[in-house]
Amino acid sequence: MSGHGDVRHLGGTVAEQKGHVCAFFNSVDEDFEFLVPLIKHGVNHGDRFWYIVDPVRRSELVQRLRREDVDADALLKSGQLELYPWEEAHLRGGSFDKEAVLRLADETLTSHEKQGFLFSRMWSNQEWALKDVSKLADLVEYESRFNGVAERHPGLAVCVYDLSQFGANIVMDVLHTHPLVILGGTVHDNPFYIPPNQFLRDLGLRSTAPPLDVA
Question: What pLDDT score was predicted for residue 104?
């Protein structure tokens, strides 16, 4: 929380003003039930919203916002709401390049600040990683290193994982890389979080660990 006592509401709960959050859901509906109030709250506070999503879900989100009396078309036109398909973010160029995505995130959040937005909200559905399971180790490293990006920008970044698609090993690693976690619709300080320097050192020592599972 900032020294001014500011808080940001995350789907009806309260999170610290800045944070890197992992969220675990069991369905698209559960995901949207949390996401839509977050977008509405951010819009009302003049925040910038950056949503990275499976392109097949884009139209459904826009329809849900309209049903909630949110003028999604106006927000998209003004740029206050950005909807990036995976192919324009994590899978830009056809595959996941963690260095490129870290640069993209840093540059995009910096651009928001230069445009006068005091707070950015980023929501990313991470099922893109399942398109090439050989990249799951890179995903875990990326998640840990993203904390450095999050610390440089006034914003809230939520990484969403479908528990029906990701296995226990990857879920535990995801928990290790996020200071905050959403479980059961509530934001918690994450007791499993490991700071990047320690986590990345441990990750580099994994020479005989079993492969990451996805189901």
Answer: 97
3-class SS shares of the chain: helix, strand, coil, % to 5: 50, 20, 30
| DSSP for 48-88, written as a single string | EEEEEE-GGGHHHHHHHHHHTT--HHHHHHHTSEEEEEGGG
Kindly give the pairing relationship between strand 19-25 and strand 155-162. parallel
Contact predicate 119/47, CB 8 Å: yes
pLDDT by 10-residue block (mean), the chain, 215 residues: 39 59 90 86 88 91 90 92 94 94 97 93 94 88 96 93 92 96 82 95 70 51
Q: What is the pLDDT of residue 174?
A: 96
For residue 176, which of 209, 200, 212, 148 has the smallest C-alpha distance? 200
Check: CB of residue 18 under 8 Å from CB of residue 156.
yes
Specify whether the CB–CB gap between 144 and 202 falls below 8 A.
Answer: no
User: Which pTM does this prediction carry?
Assistant: 0.87
- Among candidates 91, 117, 114, which has minimal Cα distance to 104? 91
Q: Which domains does the chain have, with CATH numbers?
A: 16-204 (3.40.50.300)
The whole-number pLDDT of residue 207 equals 46
Pairing mode, strands 8-10 and 13-15: antiparallel
